[in-house]
Design a protein that fits this description.
It is built from 3 helices and 11 strands. By secondary structure, it is α+β, with helices and mostly antiparallel strands. The strands form 2 sheets. Strands 2, 4, 6, 7, 9, 10 and 11 form a 7-stranded mixed sheet that branches.
Length: about 240
């Protein structure tokens, strides 16, 4: 009986050792997934790239990824670095994150800003993407997983693509619309003075001449009459 118990314990020990060796010796598998919040933008807009770890397998510590790294490349005449969150980024473009994450966890973000004077489109490329589960140095190759390069093209919006304000008028309404001409600044405005007689003006010149003529003839007649009587008395 004692011999059977010893044999069972020995077998259990072998099984545990084999299981531990498998767990620590299996190749880590993980994918660094990168996404961009926009692909079309205007000058001054910010483009944020989010890095997430997925498809984790054979990680030694409860499926955790303890670090990721990689390199970002972009045209510095088109973009400028705005900020990072959870990621350390060097001048050469190399970056890393030491945030421990599990399946679907966000490692961090990198935000670029489109510079004044940028035109057309430009590409942002991520290379040398690696995830690590933090194994010892002698098992470093088994504790890392690489991801294929990823790139994104950011295109500037064209001015003619800006949506014009909505016009509620239909085509038929526009065709039937009567356009009121604007008044000419040099046009003489009609006289609206109520004190002015709007009827035909009297012919004052003709009446005045006739009156003067009649008076003149009367004066001449009277003068001739008195002159005649005076001459008659002399005889």
């Amino acid at each position: 009986m004692k011999k059977i118990i010893i044999n069972l314990l020995l077998l259990l020990s072998i099984i545990c050792t084999a299981s531990f060796s498998y767990a620590t010796g299996a190749q880590l598998e993980a994918t660094i997934e990168i996404s961009s919040n926009i692909t079309e933008a205007s000058v001054g807009d910010k483009v944020t790239f989010t890095l997430v770890t997925r498809d984790i397998e054979n990680a030694v510590d409860s499926g955790k990824i303890y670090a990721i790294g990689g390199k970002i490349a972009y045209d510095k005449n088109f973009f400028e670095l705005d900020s990072t969150n959870g990621i350390t980024l060097g001048d050469t473009g190399l970056f890393n994150s030491t945030n421990a994450v599990t399946e679907g966890g966000t490692n961090g973000t990198i935000t670029l800003k489109i510079k004044e004077g940028a035109t057309g489109s430009s590409k942002v490329t991520f290379t040398e993407l690696t995830a690590s589960d933090g194994r010892l140095e002698d098992m470093e190759t088994l504790g890392t997983a690489t991801t294929e390069n990823q790139d994104f093209t950011i295109t500037l919006k064209k001015a003619d693509e800006v949506t014009p304000p909505a016009d509620d008028k239909t085509d038929s309404e526009e065709k039937n619309e009567v356009v009121t001409p604007k008044p000419d600044k040099n046009e003489t405005k009609p006289n609206n003075d109520n004190t002015t007689d709007k009827g035909k003006l009297p012919q004052t010149g003709v009446g005045l001449g006739l009156t003067v003529g009649v008076l003149t003839l009367a004066v001449i007649g009277l003068f001739a009459y008195f002159k005649y009587n005076k001459l008659s008395d002399i005889k």
